[in-house]
Write a structure and sequence with these properties.
heterodimer; A: 215 residues; mainly alpha; 80% helix; B: 102 residues; 3 helices
């Protein structure tokens, strides 16, 4: 599983580099599909098969198809490729490249410090700490609280045991329509807003309509 | 699954995010900028999935589903804007639309 993870992450990084360096929009889109499929493979190796399926269906399916349609409608021919080549001088890469590399260095530094001090693999840090603190503070009479801390501890240990296990779609669905129901409502509102906005922006202009009427 | 360190997956997410950021900064074609934004959103989703897998909770995948719906809404509105812009300026140059005009 580890080897698959590293291979697919290398493919994802390479394909993404190719996406941002291509001059032909269709080639870039095809590399984007490869990158998204590689990320889906990464999701699968991380134990999230439902997210991997959604990634393939919605990202590599629906969103990329939308982009392909628009690229086809915009007639990106050889002229635009030449224009892209003119815009994409090597000098252009210096500034953003340096800034991104500095950011990457910072992130690697922070991650290295994190993993040195408190690795996530010693899972469930906060619950263990909480239970330890409650053990210290409520030693006298609150048996229920100590019970709770014991349950927290057992929760933490179960977390530790299942830390890298598979997250079933069933658990995701239960969480999605249980505690996150308001988020589902908000997502539906967002999609409705996107629909209305796309309809409004795609509709022909008022002034053009008037012009057409005047003609 | 079998003991992939979460740091490595988070590092992959960071690299993908920064590649997308570089694409947004470098490119002048609006279509390529939209693609780079997709890459960035995807990297954020990867970070959520990694965190969910590291803690053994389904919440990461729930957040990924929200990010997915957000990305779908974003790309539909963005592409409608791109079509509009091409209609107005006959080009996909992002610099062509740098002036605000009532």
């Amino acid at each position: 599983m580890n080897v698959i993870f590293y291979i697919s992450s290398a493919i994802a990084v390479l394909a993404t580099i190719l996406v941002i360096t291509r001059t032909n929009a269709v080639h870039a889109l095809l590399y984007l599909v490869v990158s998204l499929l590689a990320v889906a493979m990464v999701f699968f190796t991380l134990g999230a098969p439902f997210a991997a399926a959604l990634e393939v269906i919605i990202y590599a399916g629906a969103i990329v198809v939308l982009l392909v349609f628009v690229v086809m409608m915009l007639n990106q021919g050889p002229v635009s490729i030449a224009q892209e080549r003119a815009w994409l001088r090597p000098r252009m890469w210096i500034g953003p490249g340096i800034l991104s590399l500095v950011l990457l260095g910072e992130l690697v530094y922070v991650l290295a410090g994190q993993s040195a001090s408190s690795p996530v693999r010693q899972s469930a840090g906060p619950p263990v700490g909480q239970s330890a603190r409650s053990d210290q503070s409520d030693q006298s009479d609150q048996s229920d609280i100590s019970d709770r801390s014991v349950s927290l501890k057992s929760q933490a240990s179960s977390l530790k045991s299942q830390a890298t296990s598979l997250q079933s779609p069933r658990a995701v669905g239960l969480a999605l329509f249980g505690p996150y129901a308001i988020g589902v409502e908000l997502a539906s509102l967002l999609l409705l807003a996107g629909l209305v906005a796309a309809f409004h922006l795609g509709a022909p202009d008022e002034s053009e309509k008037e012009k057409g009427g005047a003609r | 699954m079998a003991g992939i360190p979460p740091e490595h997956a988070i590092l992959l997410a960071a690299i993908l995010f920064l590649l997308g950021l570089t694409g947004v900064l470098v490119r002048r074609n609006v279509i390529f900028m939209l693609m780079s934004i997709e890459v960035m959103i995807n990297a954020a989703g990867l970070a959520f999935i990694t965190a969910g897998a590291a803690w053994g909770q389904p919440d990461g995948q729930v957040m990924f589903i929200f990010i997915l719906s957000m990305a779908a809404a974003e790309v539909s509105v963005g592409l409608a804007l791109v079509l509009r812009m091409y209609h107005c300026f006959k080009t996909l140059d992002a610099d062509a639309a740098s002036k605000m005009r009532g």
